[in-house]
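I am sending you the entry underneath: sequence plus fold tokens. Let me know what the token row says about the fold:
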Amino acid sequence: MQWVDRNRLEREVLAGTFLNLGSAAAIEISAGTGFDWLLIDLEHGSGSFADLRSQLLAARGGTAAPIVRIRSVDPDIVKFVMDSGAAGIMFPYISTAEQAKKAVDAMKYPPLGNRGVAGIIRATDYGRNWNTYFREANERSLTVVQIETPEAVAAAAEIASVPGIDVLFVGPLDLSVNMNTPGDFTTPAFNDALRSVVESCRKAGRIAGILSRPELVDLHREMGFQFLALGSDSGAIVAGMQQNLKAIRGQKNG
């Protein structure tokens, strides 16, 4: 299993990126690039649950831990994703401690939660490493909840205090929309909200994360965000194609 290194998570900035094309090849390329973690997006991404296991297999080509974002706190989906070999799950739109507790319950084996137990699953190397996986999964699996509303920001301290929550991850676009400043990540109110989340995490001994931008990543790191994501596979293709086209047009017009 490619778990997130918790010792590093507690003292370093861990770098990740979003993968939303549903492409195992894109995941294989990203996994070998040097990222600490990858986010396989099954909330807004193009992939499906039928594609997930091939994507997780592609992630084995590198050392990055695969985190999967699902659409909601659904225990059956959580069980499938974790049994398939994910290192953790990102839950969108968590705005209350009660919702966070439901996420933990679905993620953890008894007595910490109510995740169903099976022996011959991909996560256990089809039973060959069941004892090790069962012993490690509750401690090492990562429960990431997204903070995407003003209500979630206000409840961040309560959410962070839920046992089993590891990362409070800000979804900046949703948060900006819900703060009535769509796409503006620089207003004083928005940055105050970010600092409030980081402070709630610090007091509770949790980690703050965010999907950043190149011009904001230094600021977010200085604020105290440690679980940092930047870019996506689709964004990298768009940017690369535009750069190539610009170079060709420039040569032609030159």
